[in-house]
Amino acid sequence: MSKLRRRNSDASIQLTPMIDVMTVLLAVFMVTTPMMTTGIDLNLPRAGASAMTGNDHAIQISVDKAGNYYLSEMKLSRDEIVTRAIAMRGENPQLTIMISGDASADYGAVMSMMGKLKDAGFQKVGLRTQPE
Question: pLDDT tens digits for 55-70?
Answer without folding.
Answer: 556 788 999 888 899 9
